[in-house]
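Title: Comparing notes on inverse folding

I've been comparing how different people in this forum approach sequence design from structure. To keep things fair, I'm posting one structure and asking everyone to reply with a full sequence. Here's the target:
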């Protein structure tokens, strides 16, 4: 029988743009969160910045993906060389059904939705990291993928969905880190926080119809939907998790982040 005390949690985090690395407040929160977790044997992360079907996996040892523009040159020189994750890739591929084919990418490395937060949380880069693509935005299908990944948590693997609870970049009027959150961002954040506190998966999945602040909070939904991989990986998706970061904003976007048992 598995000892629940040794099971890794699953997380949904906001990853921020590269300047997150220089923000002492949010980076301090992520670093402290990582210190409070059991040490992972490996990390499986699903980032908003890799939408690809069929479901795809990164190649160990491949260079980072600098999928951003207009930032300081130093961010394009950063590295995050982690140990080989080939064994985890094979394990993940074997866990998927025939209806969810898996493509092992030959050359793609971690994108900034993965390496930016992990560089803060695990700066030594001494834990194998595998990134998995988002093959769909359908909450039910993503939860089923998460459910199939759930046994990894008993093997010491930290499962992370990396997005941003609100991400209405086209509608921001200020790019200052401490900018006041627009009403649509505050409204969506409060709605999601209340649904998470109830463990109301159906409500969260009905965001297109029920969430206030739509579609401004998510004109495209890839930063929200990694949440459903995290919820699917939960022991009981309807059991409220811990909102480790809450009621805070960065450039007006919600930093709310969740940990599920």
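Reply #1:
Here's my take.
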């Amino acid at each position: 029988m598995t000892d629940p005390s040794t099971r890794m949690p699953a997380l949904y985090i906001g990853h921020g743009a590269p300047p997150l690395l220089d923000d002492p407040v949010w980076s301090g929160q992520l670093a402290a969160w990582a210190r409070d977790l059991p040490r992972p044997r490996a990390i499986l992360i699903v980032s908003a910045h890799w939408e690809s079907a069929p479901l795809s996996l990164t190649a160990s040892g491949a260079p980072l993906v600098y999928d951003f523009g207009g930032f300081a040159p130093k961010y394009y020189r950063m590295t995050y060389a982690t140990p080989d994750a080939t064994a985890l890739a094979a394990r993940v591929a074997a866990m998927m059904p025939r209806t969810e084919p898996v493509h092992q990418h030959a050359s793609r490395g971690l994108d900034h939705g993965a390496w930016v937060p992990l560089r803060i949380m695990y700066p030594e880069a001494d834990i194998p990291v595998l990134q998995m693509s988002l093959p769909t935005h359908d909450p039910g299908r993503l939860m089923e993928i998460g459910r199939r990944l759930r046994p990894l948590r008993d093997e010491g693997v930290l499962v992370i969905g990396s997005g941003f609870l609100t991400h209405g970049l086209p509608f921001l009027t200020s790019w200052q880190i401490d900018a006041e959150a627009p009403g649509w961002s505050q409204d969506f954040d409060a709605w999601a926080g209340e649904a998470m506190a109830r463990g109301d998966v159906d409500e969260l999945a009905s965001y297109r119809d029920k969430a206030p602040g739509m579609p401004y909070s998510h004109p495209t939904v890839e930063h929200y939907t990694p949440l459903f991989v995290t919820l699917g990986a939960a022991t009981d998706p309807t059991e409220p998790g811990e909102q480790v970061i809450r009621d805070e904003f960065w450039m007006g976007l919600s930093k709310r982040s969740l940990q599920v048992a």
